[in-house]
Amino acid sequence: MAVHERGGERRDRARRDSGLRRRAALAAGALAATGLLSALVPAPDAHAAQAQAPAPARAAAKSPATATAAKSTPGALPAPTGPHAVGTVTRHLADSARKDPWKPERGDRQIAISLFYPADRDRPAGGKGRAPAPHMDPSSAAHFGSARGAGSFNHHVRPDAADWASTRTHARVDAPVARGSKALPVVLYSAGLGDPRTWNTGLAEELASRGYVVVTVDHTYDSSEVRLANGELAESALPALAGAPVTEVDAALRRAVRARVDDTRFVLDALGSAQWRRGLPHGLGDALDLRRVGMAGHSAGGFAAAQALHDDRRLKAGVNMDGQMDFPLPDGTGSKLSTVAREGVDRPFLLLGSDGPGAAGNRASWASFRQHNRAWQAELTMAGAAHGTYTDAVSLLPALARQGALPEEDLRQGVGTVRPERAVAATRAYVVAFFDRFLKGRDGRLLDGPSPRFPEMRFQGSPAS
């Protein structure tokens, strides 16, 4: 006997089915596309949803897509717009005072960092020529694009379909620091959960072109992959947590945030070492102004930026781009909120949020954070933005979607509907304006309220004085 549903019942059922499919996809391995927590919290019916899927869908779920004969090419990173050329250098650090929090049996905590800095346009890089550096080194690019890498599990690009090694930056390796550089403010950057330190190179280069030294930090065994000093590629431990019990997810997220804050503090220690700075390109170590250090991050990196500001007074200002600041389960106080969300900070802070249903995860922790802050603050939302809009995804993924390496629906869920060039311009303008104001003492008034230059940016309440 046929069963006839009313219109409202059909809509309700469609919404339930859509939600079930979405939760199943997240449990299958998408770690950060819609926020810090939602991708890892298991869905009880995920396996049932997969069992009910059509045969081709089940086959696709069991094995990664085969590589195409000619790989798709990601879009280009947008050029920096500041007055300086950009140099870059990579360094590996080992913290002998700390065992690795993810794999203590491996011994000392090892991380990789890259520095982006103002460089001279005319002087060639020492022994490296004038070719721009790759976005990712070849081994990291290959892993990032594989079924185990963040290109697939975070950003839904078909495994092995994209030629990630072809993307270039605008920075030259070991380029001489710009003539006359002195007292350059420093900005640390932490990427989203599972993403590598390279996944906001466009923003790092923009800041460097405007007179900042940007230090991007790879959080080993959290980041998709980290090439260690010995050449070994350390893969993320996070994909294995998809579908794990919520207690394990909660513990892993707390470990990730703690590790990120500890990594940040260790990097600050290294920057403060005159001996370590002597190993940087000529003149760069002497140009760092460690009295003016800020931090920015996306998603879990934005959470880490806030928590690090809360925990370490060497940081003077911070930016959180769409990162919620709570956990799946309550702690000993009975709260899911982090300490920084419960207590706020007493130095300037900027919150940049996305639009749409995924942004709901931020509301509780952001509201508490703002309520307890004791310094200048502002919260802005970019209309039409999604979680990945504030990263290199907005520049690199649309070209892959046009070539069929990424479903259009996944592209929209990842980077929203805002035009990529507008997203890049707005993100750069507000992050630069914030650090110019609070690290350089230059105020272009962009942060005073809504601006006709960026109608897509909505102030969520007036900024505090």
UniProtKB/TrEMBL annotation:
<keyword id="KW-0378">Hydrolase</keyword>
<protein>
    <submittedName>
        <fullName>Esterase</fullName>
    </submittedName>
</protein>
<feature type="region of interest" description="Disordered">
    <location>
        <begin position="51"/>
        <end position="155"/>
    </location>
</feature>
<feature type="compositionally biased region" description="Basic and acidic residues">
    <location>
        <begin position="1"/>
        <end position="20"/>
    </location>
</feature>
<dbReference type="GO" id="GO:0003847">
    <property type="term" value="F:1-alkyl-2-acetylglycerophosphocholine esterase activity"/>
</dbReference>
<dbReference type="GO" id="GO:0016042">
    <property type="term" value="P:lipid catabolic process"/>
</dbReference>
<feature type="region of interest" description="Disordered">
    <location>
        <begin position="1"/>
        <end position="21"/>
    </location>
</feature>
<keyword id="KW-0442">Lipid degradation</keyword>
<keyword id="KW-0443">Lipid metabolism</keyword>
<dbReference type="InterPro" id="IPR029058">
    <property type="entry name" value="AB_hydrolase_fold"/>
</dbReference>
<feature type="compositionally biased region" description="Basic and acidic residues">
    <location>
        <begin position="92"/>
        <end position="109"/>
    </location>
</feature>
<feature type="compositionally biased region" description="Low complexity">
    <location>
        <begin position="51"/>
        <end position="76"/>
    </location>
</feature>
<dbReference type="InterPro" id="IPR006311">
    <property type="entry name" value="TAT_signal"/>
</dbReference>
<dbReference type="Pfam" id="PF03403">
    <property type="entry name" value="PAF-AH_p_II"/>
</dbReference>
